[in-house]
Amino acid sequence: PGQPSGGTAACPPMRAFLSLLAVAAAAASARAGKGYENENQFHGRPFTHTDHTAALAAQLGTDNRPVEGFTVASKRALSPDDGSSLEIMTSKYTDLSNGAWLRVRLDFPEAKNSSDAELQTQWIGVFGPSGINASTTTPIKYSLATVDAGYATSGVADINFRVLNMRVPLDIIFFRDCRVPVYTDADRSIHSCNATLRVGPVTFADYDLPYRVSLLRRTDQTTMGVAWTTKTTTTGQKVWLQRVQSETGMPVGDASVFTPKAEQAYTAGDLCDAPAATYGYFNPGVRNVAVLTGLEPGARYNYTIVDAAGANLTYFETFDTPTAAGGDKSASLLVFADLGRGTEDGALTWDDYGRPALNTSRRMREDLDRGIGHDGIFHVGDISYAVGFLSIWDTYGDMMEPLLRRTAYSLNYGNHEADNTAATTPAGRTVTLFNGSDAGGECGVATNGWYPMPWDSIDAPWYSYDVGPVHVVAMGTEHDFRTGSPQHAWIEADLKAVDRSVTPWILFGGHRPMYIDSTYAGPWDSDINVSDMLIEHVEPLLVKYAVDVAVWGHNHVVQRLCKLRGGECVERSSGEGHTYTKGGDGVVHLVIGAAGASFSNNIHHPHLEMTEFGAYVYGHSRMNFESDRRMTWQWIANEGGDVLDFMEIVNTAAPPQPPATPGTGPGTVAAIVGGSVAGIALIAAGFWCYRRHRIAAASAGERAALRDSGDGSHAAPSSPFTRLEDRR
Questions:
Q1: CA torsion angle for 90, 91, 93, 96 (degrees, to 10)?
Q2: Distance between CA 226 and CA 215 in Å, rounded?
Q3: Which pLDDT tens digit goes with each residue over 332-380?
Q4: Tens of pLDDT along 481-524?
Q5: Are 367 and 622 a contacting pair, CB within 8 Å?
Q6: I need a surface site. Which of 8, 448, 455, 692 has the fewest CB within 10 A?
Q7: What are the distances in angstroms from CA 212 to CA 93, 361, 393, 683?
Q8: CB-based burial of residue 323 (10 Å sphere; 0-12 exposed, 13-18 middle, 19+ buried)?
Q9: Which residues contact 305 (CB under 8 A, 6 or more apart)?
Q10: How far apart are CA 449 and CA 474, in angstroms?
Q11: What are phi and psi of 157, to 5 degrees?
Q12: Which DSSP string do the residues of 421-457 spell out, in sequence order?
């Protein structure tokens, strides 16, 4: 990744050595077989939206009629009353693999006489399980018929759907005269609508194959969770694990096998309110969670999920365990908030929200390919925005799987995962602090079922862990954090116990922000009121125990604030590096809630004095911690992958020493000098070519501005406020 334009043509030494590497890679690929093919499929997809026309055309056949062997009843639905029809055009729609593509054709002559408003009520949805009463549930995804530009004049719409194996057969259903609800509607069901045409069932080859695989953060650096979804608990599936050399991929020691705990993720009875417990419910199946133990921190492992006989069911994946704690180590994290979900086919999920998340996830995969973020992901609340429409968790899991099967996932609850009212909170559960309904009745159950974190309980969602030189603290802003609460006591005890000689940095994260440049005031749970509460009750702990940097979400914006204490700036950044000094009786605050959710658009104009940078730009952030000397933060814009803003905190009290060498991620090709002449020559050639390219390509001004941004991206725009529209 990041190959400069011109390739190796101007670098003869590198060209020769890349030829040797290509031979070695081809041999490795031949040995790996299916595994490498799938890795390219997941991690080598282009950033731009893929055109699947050719692949679909190959499936359609020559005359676009039902293919021999399929019954007309399931392949095509006809309405003799008005001559309309709904038909699956792809030749194969049974025994599909996960992520298969279907083309559906709607022929609805009445559309030619429909008004614009009427056209907006004509849509095709994917429903499950097959045969379900569509008026009692909501679709997994849908597309308006007008997605086909010719529909209004021809009455014919061709719609492409990418369908997921969600452990049940599916139906394709056409609705007419059915308004699609919007987020502000109190009732977002479709109970007043009737299905006009239905085709199906669309079936999959095996409903117990492992999907939605994810690595889960544990507090102990020698353990890692691996989770995946199946239909039943009796599959006998296990995780096969092999430590390998980072440089060569050769096995180290013997392989191990780990048995998961396989349980129904949750049922409708576990949920708190509608829509999650009623018309938004979708069976999540069985969540298998295996805990890998005895891991070596900072080591590399291959793993796969195998069946009861030991045959692998997924391709071999590689992950690096997080770096061991230590003040002389380094760590690389990907950090963001307020993500949401998008779909590869452009179809909408019910109560659609957060579609730029698809591009954000792709940019983060590019980072992992470069070895950035190999120590884990910290997602600071508002995860999928399912808000009670639970099939969305499968959509989210599919979007994130290429990331989460490669690096450890940690998260906080946001209001859209946890918030619930006192009236609907079951006996034995704790009412959330702000007594709202933002989670759509999920009350933390769905998030905990899909991505269980190492917290004590679903109602005590706070925890911490060490990685390299940083201690990470995840608080729960949706649960009582005021002085005297269990969470407040835990935060103080946790911070007090940090050994700064082992983890000299503290990264603190919560969903609702302690400091925010926002005009939203008034209600109990408004930005300003919550900010005041956090400043009163939590900030004294952050200052007392010298927390270095705090990250927040909830407000859908990117903001870099000065180092703050008691509402006052105690230090502003300086120089081209936007540099702060470590210590100094204050905390640097970052609001990073622009990963995919719609922008909040309530920043002050002109901005508040504490705001050093503010932008409405979708993306994610990188955080790197370099021993006890320096940490850096960058916001990576989806559009272009540029570094939009950045900062660093420097420990001026630390003795001068070379920066710690960042860890090597699974996607990085590492050249190691171990007495190998070829290795030494390769490094020398690469350095020579890199310098030659950069000197030739950069103007004098650019050379002065270039920073160690991980991919050579440019500095932030000079304007303190930037708004870029995310291009899907």
A1: -100
A2: 5
A3: 999 999 999 999 999 999 988 899 999 999 999 999 999 999 999 999 9
A4: 999 999 999 999 999 999 999 999 999 999 999 999 999 999 99
A5: yes
A6: 692
A7: 22, 15, 9, 38
A8: buried
A9: 210, 213, 226, 228, 237, 238, 239, 240, 312, 313, 314
A10: 18
A11: -130, 130
A12: -GGGPPTTSPPPTT---TTTT-TTHHHHHHS--SSSB
Determine the distance from the C-alpha atom of residue 123 to the mean position of all C-alpha atoms in its chain, rounded to a whole number.
28
Mean of pLDDT values over 545-558: 98
Q: What percent of the chain has pLDDT over 70?
A: 79
3-state secondary structure of 524: coil
Locate all alpha helices (DSSP H) within 292-444, ordered by sequence.
Answer: 357-369, 392-404, 415-418
DSSP string, 236-264: --EEEEEEE-TTT--B-S--EEEPPEEEE
Q: What is the pTM of this model?
A: 0.82
Mean pLDDT (the chain, rounded) = 83
Task: Please tell me the predicted confidence (pLDDT) of residue 187.
Answer: 78
Cα separation, 581 vs 180, whole angstroms: 52
Report the alpha-carbon distance of residue 188 to residue 499 in Å, rounded.
Answer: 50
Q: Which helix H or strand E contains 716, and what residues bound it?
A: none
Residue 705: φ, ψ to 5°: -90, -15
Q: pLDDT tens digits, residue range 280-327? A: 999 999 999 999 999 999 999 999 999 999 999 998 999 999 999 999
Cα–Cα distance measured from residue 273 to residue 443, given in angstroms and rounded to the nearest whole number: 8
pLDDT at 655: 62
Distance CA 551, CA 412 (A): 11
Rounded Cα–Cα distance for residues 193 and 178 (Å): 6
Return the H-helix or E-strand segment holding 262: strand 261-264
Alpha helices by DSSP H, listed for 191-339, are none
Can you tell me whether residue 379 is helix, strand or coil? Answer: strand
Query: At 578, which amino acid appears?
Result: H
Model pLDDT, residue 696: 35
For 4, the token pair is 């400069």
Give the least confident one: 108-122, 183-197, 432-446. Answer: 183-197
pLDDT for res 193: 84
Q: Is the pLDDT of residue 450 over 60?
A: yes
Judged by average pLDDT, the poorest of 75-89, 104-118, 668-682 is 668-682
Q: Is 24 helix (H, G, I), strand (E, B) or coil?
A: helix
CA angle, residues 372, 375, 378, in degrees to nearest 5: 95
Place of tokens 């960042």: 662
Per-residue exposure over 232-263, b if at least 16 CB sit within 10 Å of its own CB, e if not: eeebebbbbbbbbebeeeeeeeeebebebebe
Q: Which residue in the block uniquely carries the two structure tokens 């993306």?
A: 619
Name the residue with tokens 């291009």. 727
Yes or no: say if 380 and 510 are a contact pair by the CB < 8 Å rule: yes
The Cβ of residue 427 has, within 10 Å, a number of other Cβ atoms equal to 4
